[in-house]
Design goal:
The chain has 13 helices and 28 strands. The chain has 467 residues and is of the alpha+beta class.
């Protein structure tokens, strides 16, 4: 293992001084006890870490990191990402030249640590003027298959894909909006694992592979958006697909009101799908059970709970099928326009994921505000009894962090200066009383803001990265 560590450490010496680089990486391994090995174009640090027992962390514990300077390596990166929690495995993608490829995957031991890494390290200035991007990373088990003959049925496509690839679990086929007897010319094939999907893609990708005499297009499908259970428990909007284009919003509202009159607040229909908003969640759940599979104007509809999407996490790109929201913006890649629907059409401002597709979603206000009806019972609680996921600001996270460590609340001291063009610029100095005796008790970012709120958030975020 020592020889493997040494070989991995030496592999990036082609770009930095070999001795300097190897020494830095070996020092990191000696300090942490983690092993390092390079294989298949990536260098793995850990996986598992020293003393780890049991299975690897569950799905949702890994983050994608983009826009990494090409001459930056684990000895600089690992200490930054350790601020969010214990690292299970750090995978840095490598070029043959010894430079990194500009992105990495970091797996933490818990989902909470991964979410904290996204919170405090996304848009983090890793070097002067160099900002990294951090977002959730998910293994993809679904392929997009385009240029399928539109007369083919789901069973035919499923049987054919099972003949030419292994590990097929299901095929998702959507009816044509204008003619429900035909498909839309594409399908999504679900595999039993990411590896099975990757092997199938490798077999089908050359472009010369044909199904039913047609050359097909193959790519990774956009993954289904994972929404935490707590958020889904508040959703009271149904997503209805496979509607006839001619079906009106009034018709949809009338049909969904049949099982219990007056429960539907409003309906928003777009082409062959719609969002049905209910006054109460329990009515939405009951309607979903009753209406799924029902016929409206001759079309058998599919009904599910709409999945809210965090706009900050609507990035998307494909790295070996590991999906990272908006990685094209992290790596500077252009949007892929191949003329085929890898996801269903959507307005640029809104999106909801369903079975791996995009479809128009809910305005942001729908996700964070709910009607306050007279008579609703309110229970006083302490903010510290909540989970960290309830807080969206760095200042609140810092206050929460201090409380959990039994520290006194942070103290903020505001300072100002004037820019060359006469603007008032602000910065906060943060004082943590409970660690006043340590080497650093004050924390002040090296950036100035034009607003008080911005300065406070920046100072809190900077402090979280330091303590």
């Amino acid at each position: 293992m020592h020889e493997e560590n040494k070989a991995a450490a030496n592999a990036s010496g082609k770009t930095r001084s070999g001795t300097q680089n190897e020494a830095a990486l070996l020092a990191l391994m000696e300090k942490t006890g983690y092993s390092m090995i390079q294989e298949n174009g990536q260098r793995k640090f850990g996986g598992p870490p020293p003393g780890w027992e049991g299975p690897p962390p569950p799905r949702g514990c890994e983050v994608f990191v983009g826009k990494i300077p090409r001459d930056m390596y684990e000895d600089e990166l690992v200490p930054v990402f350790e601020r969010a929690g214990k690292i299970y495995e750090f995978r840095l993608m490598m070029e043959f030249s010894g430079e990194n490829r500009g992105y990495a995957f970091v797996m933490y031991t818990t989902k909470e640590e991964a979410q904290l890494a996204i919170k405090i390290l996304n848009h983090y200035e890793i070097r002067p003027g160099k900002f990294i991007g951090v977002c959730v990373s998910l293994d993809n088990c679904r392929l997009f298959i385009g240029a399928i003959p539109k007369e083919k049925k789901k069973e035919e496509i499923l049987n054919e894909m099972k003949k030419v690839t292994e590990g097929v679990v299901d095929v998702i086929v959507y009816p044509n909006a204008a003619d429900k007897t035909k498909n839309r010319g594409f399908a999504f094939v679900q595999y039993e694992s990411h590896r099975a999907a990757a092997m199938a893609r490798r077999r089908l990708i050359p472009g010369t592979f044909q199904l039913w005499g047609h050359t097909i297009q193959v790519d990774w499908a956009d993954p289904e958006k994972e929404v935490d259970e707590e958020t889904m428990q508040r959703v009271k909007v149904l997503y209805v697909r496979n509607l006839m284009i001619s079906t009106t919003e009034d018709t949809i509202k009338a049909e969904f009101n049949k099982f219990k009159p007056g429960v539907v607040e409003r309906v928003k229909k777009l082409r062959d799908y719609a969002f049905v908003h209910f006054f109460h969640r329990e009515d939405a759940v009951a309607a979903m059970s009753v209406m799924n599979g029902k016929c409206i104007d001759g079309a058998s509809i599919e009904v599910t709970l709409a999945k809210p999407v965090n706009k900050e996490n609507t990035w998307k790109h494909h790295f070996n099928g590991q999906i990272s929201p908006s990685s094209e913006s992290l790596l500077g890649f252009p949007n892929k326009e191949d003329g085929h629907q890898k996801s269903l059409g959507k307005p640029a401002s809104l999106s909801v994921h369903l079975n791996g597709q995009h479809s128009p979603g809910l305005p942001k206000v729908e996700r964070c505000t709910y009607p306050f009806f007279p008579g609703i019972k309110l229970t006083p609680i302490s903010m510290y009894s909540l989970k960290s996921s309830h807080f969206s600001s760095a200042a609140m996270h810092l206050d929460y962090f201090c409380n959990k460590n039994n520290w006194a609340p942070p103290e903020y001291y505001l300072y100002s200066t004037t820019s060359q063009d006469g603007k008032v610029l602000l910065v906060y100095k943060v004082f943590i009383p409970s660690i006043a005796g340590s080497s650093q008790s004050y924390f002040m970012p090296d950036k100035l803001c034009t607003t008080v709120e911005g300065a406070r958030e920046l100072a809190a975020r900077f402090t979280l990265l330091q303590i």
